[in-house]
């Protein structure tokens, strides 16, 4: 700001008392020679002296505006909640006569966070301005994290971006140090940045990076607020981010100059267990409702990482309530890894109905104790090591109906299947503390799965399976199963939520299409779209032509000819569903006010003996086809339950509950080419779903 000629100051902890007094005295001048003052919410809530100065400025009509940056921090639904932000509601109360305008700014607010932030700040009648969430110059990729993966990534970064700026985000300070050492050994100038460093050291590292004296910052999420370095060429997440919002914000620090940049996330399911330990551990004092929300955030990230079929840019953008056509990513010069694979091999991914196998696994789990997801996955594939095979045979697990049913799947496919059952709320992976203070994760049934086994709604589970390098095509034993279309699979799920909307929409669509067929002198409505196609449209309510063309019997030429009329028919149903989703969202915000303390992490030696509750997520964390705001992970969350007795039997299954033992992974990315007319920052014209951001 000073470089722009704007007189400004910042009241920070770096200043001593005398330096702060000088600033306060300048603010008391008439008129004050400081036009812009930077302070933290913590300073506003704690400093009586600052409050006195604000009061004086207000009385003299020199206090013209409050600007709250990173406003998502006011919401407990936000990825970076800070309690002192909630105290900023005093600004509306204390400076009301005359009213001082308030602007709240954030780049990572979901519709739910927008509503919550407005309520907390007392600006419910404020105007809302939204730009697009699309960062078209960024390439997104997920890569399995194995022992040598990061070394391969470093070598690739040296080739693509020699001497260029980058950020590597880590989960812990120790991880920052380890990653920094690895980078330094590879000849890359790198430094660490985390909350454990003295203030002066952090400032020095930051300035060195901004001046390009060093190339890479290895940081926790403590780094990045207020940083505006335009030429960051790559952002790497060495560990799993805590939320989609946090991931979007951190990747958004790349490519602010509009040039192509690269965002890589190294994924290991074990990192999710580490994050859950932080959320569910004894050190976390958050209420049960807040813990549940944090767990939902983690499962949303897991679903994002384990997805192998949906455009990553679409998933990110629609998480924030914006409608995005995946064809834009596919045709761009910076496609995500999913779209890159689709370009190379359109038939690389096939969708299978594995609902029967899911029921078999749930039924078998009623007879099993202390089993991990990995062990279940190995049984499902019918491929165990010698020790586990002997143990499984002794326990009778090799005689279970689901044993060997997934023989055509890879280790990764079978684990994704089990984790999808967790995300769908049929299996709960509960953490237990051993007597040695280590953490183990065991798979257990939920109330939802128990109800399914005694006559309740049966699971409908669909799994995408991709051809890998060893398996150029899908294995023949998998093809023997029934593959299904994307739209047909998702139709089953979407009908359930609003059956009345589906029924009315189907009737209206049938009437409209019948009339179109008559006007066009066609033989009947099915010359335009099949009955199955009509049902899919009524269930999924697609909002883009790319989504509509995936519907049964629809083609590009039909969408071009009839798409506008079909979309016009769907508009009132979009509005109705959005209004119901908004009501559900407000109900969830009310539940968050429940401040009941969460139960501590259960111990394996607990003397309590009760059946497991429905503490697994009951919502669906996978993306919803053709729906704005679709990647929000609705559901009741994971409230804590009273643990069962967990005495480890001699034949209980052990092993990691987390990441796969991937072989050495190599980056699949290519240096992105610079697109013509690349714009800085976000795209200019978002296709927003208006009801996702209620007035």
From TrEMBL:
One Gene Ontology cellular component annotation held by this UniProt entry: nucleus
Single GO MF annotation: 3'-5' DNA helicase activity
EC number: 5.6.2.4
SMART domains, sorted: HELICc (SM00490), HRDC (SM00341), RQC (SM00956)
One Pfam family this sequence matches: RQC
Listed cofactors: Zn(2+)
Sequence ranges of Low complexity compositional bias: 597-618
Swiss-Prot/TrEMBL GO biological process terms: DNA replication; double-strand break repair via homologous recombination; reciprocal meiotic recombination
InterPro entries (UniProt xref): DEAD/DEAH_box_helicase_dom, DNA_helicase_ATP-dep_RecQ, Helicase_ATP-bd, Helicase_C-like, HRDC-like_sf, HRDC_dom, HRDC_dom_sf, P-loop_NTPase
Enzyme class (EC, first level): isomerase
Helicase C-terminal domain mapped to chain residues: 152-299
Catalysis: reaction(s): Couples ATP hydrolysis with the unwinding of duplex DNA by translocating in the 3'-5' direction; ATP + H2O = ADP + phosphate + H(+)
Entry annotated with the keyword Lyase: no
Domain HRDC intervals: 499-580
Domain Helicase ATP-binding: start-end pairs: 1-127
Family statement drawn from the similarity comment of this UniProt entry: Belongs to the helicase family. RecQ subfamily.
NCBIfam families on file: recQ_fam
Name listed for the protein in its UniProt record: ATP-dependent DNA helicase
């Amino acid at each position: 700001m000073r470089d722009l000629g704007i007189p400004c100051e910042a009241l920070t902890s770096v200043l001593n008392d005398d330096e702060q007094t000088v600033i306060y005295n300048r603010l008391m001048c008439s008129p004050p020679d400081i036009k812009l003052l930077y302070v933290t919410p913590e300073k506003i809530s704690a400093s009586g002296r600052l409050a006195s100065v604000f009061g004086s400025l207000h009385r003299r009509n020199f206090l013209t505006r409050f600007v709250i940056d990173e406003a998502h921090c006011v919401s407990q639904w936000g990825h970076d909640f800070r309690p002192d932000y909630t105290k900023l509601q005093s600004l509306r109360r204390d400076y009301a006569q005359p009213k001082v305008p308030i602007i709240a700014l954030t780049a990572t607010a979901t519709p739910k966070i927008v509503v919550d932030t407005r309520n907390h700040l007392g600006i419910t009648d404020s105007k809302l301005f939204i730009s697009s969430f699309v960062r078209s110059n960024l390439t997104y990729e997920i890569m399995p994290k194995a022992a040598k993966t990061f070394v391969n990534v470093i070598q690739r970064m040296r080739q693509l971006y020699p001497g260029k700026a980058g950020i590597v985000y880590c989960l812990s300070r120790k991880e920052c140090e380890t990653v920094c050492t690895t980078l330094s050994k590879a000849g890359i100038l790198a430094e660490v940045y985390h909350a454990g460093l003295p203030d002066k050291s952090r400032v020095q590292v930051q300035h060195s990076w901004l001046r390009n004296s060093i190339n890479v910052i290895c940081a926790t999420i403590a780094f990045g607020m207020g940083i505006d370095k335009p030429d960051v060429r790559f952002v790497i997440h060495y560990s799993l981010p805590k939320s989609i919002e946090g991931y979007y914000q951190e990747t958004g620090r790349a490519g602010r100059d509009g040039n192509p940049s690269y965002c890589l996330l190294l994924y290991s399911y074990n990192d999710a267990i580490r994050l859950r330990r932080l959320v569910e551990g004894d050190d976390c004092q958050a209420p049960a409702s807040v813990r549940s929300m944090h767990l939902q955030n983690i499962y949303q990230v897991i679903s994002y990482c384990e997805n192998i079929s949906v455009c990553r840019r679409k998933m990110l953008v629609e998480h924030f309530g914006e409608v995005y056509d995946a064809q834009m990513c596919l045709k761009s010069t910076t496609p995500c890894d999913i779209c890159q694979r689709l370009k190379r091999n359109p038939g690389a991914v096939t969708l299978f109905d594995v609902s029967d196998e899911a029921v078999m696994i749930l039924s078998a789990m009623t007879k099993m104790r202390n089993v991990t997801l990995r062990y279940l996955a190995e049984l499902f594939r019918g491929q165990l090591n010698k020790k586990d095979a002997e143990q499984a045979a002794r326990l009778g697990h090799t005689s279970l109906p689901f044993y060997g049913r997934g023989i055509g799947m890879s280790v990764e496919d079978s684990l994704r299947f089990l984790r999808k059952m967790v995300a769908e709320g049929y299996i709960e992976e509960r953490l237990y503390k051993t007597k040695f203070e280590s953490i183990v994760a065991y798979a257990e049934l939920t109330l939802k799965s128990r109800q399914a086994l005694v006559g309740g709604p049966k699971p409908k589970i669909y799994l995408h399976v991709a051809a890998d390098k060893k398996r150029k095509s899908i294995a023949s034993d998998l093809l023997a199963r029934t593959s299904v279309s994307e739209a047909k699979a998702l139709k089953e799920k979407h009908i359930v939520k609003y059956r009345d909307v589906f029924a009315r929409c189907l009737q209206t669509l049938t009437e409209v299409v019948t009339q179109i067929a008559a006007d066009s002198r066609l033989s009947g409505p099915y010359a335009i779209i099949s009955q199955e196609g009509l049902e899919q449209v009524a269930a999924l309510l697609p909002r883009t032509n790319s989504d509509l063309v995936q519907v049964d019997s629809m083609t590009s030429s039909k969408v071009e000819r009839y798409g506008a009329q079909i979309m016009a028919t769907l508009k009132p149903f979009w509005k109705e569903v959005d209004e119901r989703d908004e009501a559900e969202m407000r109900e969830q915000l009310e539940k968050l006010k429940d401040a009941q303390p969460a139960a501590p992490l259960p111990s394996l030696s607990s003397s309590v003996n009760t059946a497991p509750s429905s503490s697994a997520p009951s919502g669906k964390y996978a993306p919803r086809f053709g729906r704005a705001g679709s990647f929000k992970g609705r559901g009741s969350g994971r409230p804590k339950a009273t643990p069962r007795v967990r005495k480890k039997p001699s034949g209980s299954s052990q092993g990691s509950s987390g990441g796969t033992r991937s072989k050495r992974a190599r980056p699949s990315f290519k240096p992105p080419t610079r697109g013509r007319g690349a714009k800085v920052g976000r795209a200019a014209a978002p296709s927003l779903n208006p009801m996702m951001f209620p007035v």
